[in-house]
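User: Assemble these into one structure.

Assistant: Restating your components, then the assembled model:
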Amino acid sequence: MKAFWHGYIAGPIIGALWTLTMAVVTCIVVSFSTGEGLAPSLIGSLALGAWLGFIWLPDGDRTRNQRIAWSVGLAIVPALAFLLVNPAVIGAEGTSTLTILVAWVVVIVASAWPLERILHDLPYGATTRHEFEAAVIRFLTGFGYIFFTAIVAIPFYVMVMTSLKNQSELIQNPLDFTIDLSKGTDLFRSYFELFSDFNFGSYLWTSFFVSVLTVFLTLLFSVPGAYAVARLRFKGRTAFSRSILLIYMVPMIVLALPIYIAFSMAGLRNTIFGIVLIYPVTTIPVALYMLQGYFRGLPAEVEEAGLMDGLSRLAVIWKITLPLSLPALASVSLYVFMIAWNEFLLAFMLLDDPSTFTLTRGIASLNSSEVPRQHLMAGAVVATVPIMLLFLGLERFMTKGLTAGSVKG
Amino acid sequence: MTSATPPTGTGPLERREARLAWSLLFPTIAIVSAVVILPLLAIFWISFKPIGLADLRPPTPVVREAMRGDPGDYTLRYRIRNSSQEKSISNVVLTDELPAEVAVRAAPPEGCEIGRESVTCDIGTLEPGQRLDIELPITITGIDEDAAEEALEGRPPEITGSSENTLTNFEFTSENFARIFDSDEFFEVLWVTVFYTVFGTFGALIFGLFAAMLLNKEFKGQGILRGLYLFPYVAPVIAVAFAWIILFDPFSGSANALLIQMGVTDEAINFFGVRPLALIMVTVFEIWRYFPLSFLFILARMQSIDHDMYEAADMDGASPFQKFWFLSLPQLLGILSVLFLLRFIWTFNKFDDIFLLTGGNAGTRTLTVNVYEQAFAISNIGAGAAVAVVIFCCLIIFAFFFFRFVSREEGL
């Protein structure tokens, strides 16, 4: 381990790993945006990275001439790798020279520029544990940002781009996500068809209606319940709050089976009424749990002052507690809305008639070999965009609310 | 001198408070027990029942009415059949209204009575799959044939009958449990569930911890990145699951095209179609979808750690990894253990993700997917309920651990 605590060893290793990462990322990004194939080369990128990692090391005790001599001398390593084995990034068959040149420039810039910042505090010779770990952490941080951004963004990028293409283009070159802007509004054809032929307008409205109603009903039931659990003393309070948590752990599929049977017998399947009946019950325990956590945090003295001044308990809840807990109500509403909007299992089991479909059920019905996949992806985008916008707009509430009470996923 | 004694028992104020609490809780308790407790009891009941999907629709008598014949010799015919091939229907009674212009001209068949503008036939018991015709000779006065036919068909006949319902009778069987425990499949399902749950939980925690450390500093664009990293959790599962399916499609998926271009593989990989890769992929999906949740909780806890501690550690010359290992991690242990238990339970309960990605094929059938598979794919509701009972028992064990070890920690 101690051997690594030298700049001239740690630097090239970090550099090699960083350039390899950059080569892979560049290939993915350039391939996904031009549709032309590119491949990173293991030896080529490791050699280039190791050299970069060496020359970026601060001077240490070396003279300027010594440094330049070493750097130039060692440049033979990436140069040999370039000529004899492979450059860091190679093009596939049919990839244009321009694309390859662009990829090379991107790899060199994306390697050299951040590496300078990663290594600027790492001495050339023996390093302290501090300096070594700081460099490793800077490397891991850069790697982490790229890694997480890539894994989150790629599926969504593919989703949006697929919805703008057509089946034959997709099969011809699955890497080609370029958009033909000359098509104009024709680009959004699958969206138009979704709303005109597949009735998505009605699904969208049903989903919205059901979600809003669910939020309303959930709050109606959970606010008094949460208040009672948080503030009032009664026998069985602990047992009650534990059973809420227990209920909130029961898997939906276990409940879905008897609910399916009961709804089949009562004729509630294929009705919006049945869905509105069942959704709030799945969200009440969550809301109750989040709200009671918040109510506990409110100062009881304010409410007691209200009681002393002659307000009844219900008036205290209405005039004091609720106005004070508006942020919590907002985050609970947002969260319940999200659950209802994204709910799939119950909608899938209970709704068979297209006139009662919610959005998620509508997307599930698009998943057949007869419907081209750009429609499926357009449906996915239609379902995702509203909840994303709502969420990004109210992100602060969401983050607070989710962590204030525990949350089901 | 009387000594003051503290009051014993419940005073009127205390009673009033408890009454108010229960009245506030009552609506919630009522609705939750109706939709959660009752179904849970029903699951236990059904798991001991020999019941299939088809039994949910009770056998019903079906009737079709038709007018036939030539002028002067019309007959009204009712074709009756039992919809079920397995169960008989008893007390079958047919009633139909007749228009004023139609009269029955000869004696009706046995069991039928002709009233004023109506006919009632007591048919008795219909054997499984039995078909029966009842013919009434009729005359038409005043209107022509088409109008009479229309008038007759405008009033559909009613038929009633009763049959035994498997769901409510007292016939029990342990066959459902014997069936699910006997098969080798059950242990495979159990192993898949354990793999999915353990790796899904640990993965989500580790990635969440990593992401939280990245964002635990102030910089430009931190808010945007935090929002972006929450996307997988916020987006509808059905949308992201299909996006993954299309991304990893073996024939025209971009991931395969990319891997082939990069020379990682020579031919397309069927990510969601072959064992053991499919199981790994659904676990990776689970980690991808739920790391945001753990990241959010861990980040919230990290930001509340006292900063002085780190300054003291700096003075003592602690290195960054030492600070993480000896300061941050012990501080985060509480939230990590709570998250572990919660995520463990919810990953165990997860159904939608695997159902959408693979449908439980290629060795990805977990217990929850097995409930659906048994109840709806094999149409054996009883066996599905038996699997659900097994899940519920596991859940009770988890809940026990949860309350025993986590109890009051972190206020959860």
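Chain B has a mean pLDDT of 84.
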